[in-house]
Amino acid sequence: MTQLSGGYAAVEALRAEKTEFVFGLIGSATMEMFDALYDAKDIGFIGVHDERTGTHMADGYARASGNTGVVLAGQNGPGTTNLVTGLAQAKAAYTPIVSIGGALAQGHVYRDAFQEVDQQALFTPITKKTMTSPSADRVPELVQEAFRVANAPRKGPVHLNLPRDVLSAQAEYPPMQSPEHYRPVSPAAAPAESIARAAKLLADAARPVIMVGGAIKNTGSADCALALAEAFNAPLVSSPGHGDAIPFGHPLNAGQTGPRGNEVASRLMKEADVILALGTRIGFNATFYSYDNINRDAAIIHVEQEPTAIGRYFPVELGIWGDAPTVADQLRAEADKLSRRAEADAWTESYKAERQAFLAKRDAEADVANTIIQPSGLFKTLRDVAPQNAAYTMDAGTLCLQATDKLNYWVPKSLFTPLDFGLVGFSFAAGLGVKLACPERPVISLMGDGGFGMTISELSTAVDYGINTVTLVMNNGCWGAEKAYQRDFFNGRYIGADVSSPPFDKLADLYGAKGYRADTLAQTAEAIEAALECGKPAVIDVMVDPAALYSFRRDSFKHRGG
After folding, report:
1. Quick one: which of 84, 75, 181, 74 has its CA closest to 125?
2. Measured in Å, how far apart are the chain's first and last C-alpha atoms?
3. CA torsion through residues 109, 110, 114, 119, sign
4. What pTM was computed for the model?
5. The domain 366-557 belongs to what CATH superfamily?
6. Among residues 140, 171, 126, which one has the least CA distance to residue 13?
7. CATH topology of 192-355 equal to that of 366-557?
């Protein structure tokens, strides 16, 4: 037994979980933890300027590394309330994050004490689980529980409140357990009869499609999905935000489907007679919950590790409760027993020709001649200049939504977006976390000028810790999505739509980063190449046509006759 303060015990528990980084903002409520982190040389502390952006860093790190992101809000009250947006974002993205918040001393609770807020109630709706440690001796147990729950299917954020008196109190602790001793993981396989039935449905299909989602991407299981697709000679589509689940260059990869996907992948889903959904909810961004985006008559085989997701939005022919990569391997083995149909092969060959024509058309129609930078020209420039191993982070907003399916993701785990939370202000901070997870890869963060203005203070974090990402600010002087809706559905009655910003290139220089400005595509290409080689965090302020706006959610304004 070892005697430690609750704060030191919390850090020892993080060490037992093999925590690589803690993102956080110092505060007086958790000084014992920070003092323990001072001695924990094997845990990198990344001091941030805002708890929200620290949570986005933990989110990006967790998604890119496959580890658990850890964020520490040092102060109770306002320090912890700043976590709310980031944790809600992580819950929507099923990102495993353990957030730790300093909390009011227990003897002061319910007395209107300084910085008092009911943190247990606050975080409960936006996490998988929220806990408050009642005593110092319980701290390691609850840290372990937080990691356990965060990583159990479906993954997501867990918040742990640690009161001041709990962190300062002393207790006796046994040796800390490592995760393999209390968190064993064995992927769930499907019953043989379900595999046989699913394989026969695919083999008998005339127009088969395999739809892959986060369960393939986040587990790095592209090879499993590709082997299955090749066995049945079936095209693959990906759910929105997971266009990197399968390498771009594979001929069976059609890209992202749905209202925000590309026309080829979207057509496949509308015409398929059998759809194998591998580790995806077949949810909002892929379908808008409408048969406008998926064939009403398709037989759906839905493979999910979360049983409540199976058939939730669309009736299924066969539901399989299991681990998507494991089930893909099972189906691949079963495919050897079956023969393919000529009709399905013809469907896939026709798709391949259509896909090649689409990619050629995308390049040919990119507006590279306009003196004002157009989105299509900007995205072609990125496709031409960015290294194939680049990782991209995105915000929400009209330009980032246009970009998501216009870039080429050659390496799985190359696209990190807010997904269903639709958050502006995510990309730059998330990119810092991705870079820490993958220091050998170039990381390019796309943002609008409004979103970057929200989070620019983290340039100090990037400079201080040498986190050298490239942030490409698509500067159109407005909140583009909302301005497009005001233009298209409210007769151009603009209010609150325009944004003023300082020169971001000069501001980056003042922070000690490297700034570039681009008014033409040629300057943009030069700036990207220079930024990737500059050895500093870099910001490229790209002047994009403010009129190049697009209304993505036209369905939301049908009541206005749009």
Report:
1. 84
2. 69
3. positive
4. 0.96
5. Thiamin diphosphate (ThDP)-binding fold, Pyr/PP domains (3.40.50.970)
6. 140
7. yes
Count of helix runs (H) and strand runs (E) in the chain: 23, 20
> What are the structural domain ranges in the chain?
2-181, 192-355, 366-557
Locate 348 and state its tokens.
Answer: 């896939």
Q: Look up residue 141 and give its two tokens.
A: 């147990």
Q: pLDDT tens track of the chain, all 562 residues?
A: 899 999 999 999 999 999 999 999 999 999 999 999 999 999 999 999 999 999 999 999 999 999 999 999 999 999 999 999 999 999 999 999 999 999 999 999 999 888 899 999 999 999 999 999 999 999 999 999 999 999 998 999 999 999 999 999 999 999 998 888 877 778 899 999 999 999 999 999 999 999 999 999 999 999 999 999 999 999 999 999 999 999 999 999 999 999 889 999 999 999 999 999 999 999 998 999 999 999 999 999 999 999 999 999 999 999 999 999 999 999 999 998 888 788 999 999 999 999 999 999 999 999 999 999 999 999 999 999 999 999 999 999 889 988 998 999 999 999 999 998 999 999 999 999 999 999 999 999 999 999 999 999 999 999 999 999 999 999 999 999 999 999 999 999 999 999 999 999 999 999 999 999 999 999 999 999 999 999 999 999 999 999 998 887 777 777 776 4
Q: Phi and psi for 96 in degrees, rounded to 5?
A: -75, 105
DSSP 435-477: HHH-TTS-EEEEEEHHHHHHHGGGHHHHHHTT---EEEEEE-S
Q: Which of 542, 545, 405 is nearest to 470 (CA)?
A: 542
CATH architecture of residue range(s) 2-181: 3-Layer(aba) Sandwich (3.40)
Show the DSSP H helices in 119-236 as ranges.
119-123, 139-151, 164-168, 192-204, 214-217, 222-232
Question: How far apart, in whole angstroms, are the C-alpha atoms of residue 355 and residue 336?
Answer: 27
Contact between 279 and 310 (Cβ < 8 Å): no
Q: Report CA-CA distances (Å) from 333 to 151, 330, 336, 492.
A: 29, 5, 6, 58
Write out the E strands in 16-150. 21-25, 44-47, 69-73, 97-103, 129-132
If phi > 0 it is left, if psi is from -120 to 50 it is alpha, else beta; for residue 375 that is alpha
Q: Is 388 helix (H, G, I), strand (E, B) or coil?
A: coil
Structure tokens at 161: 């409140």
> Coil, strand, or helix at residue 98?
strand
CA distance linking residue 209 with residue 229, whole number of Å: 9
Q: What CATH code is assigned to 192-355?
A: 3.40.50.1220
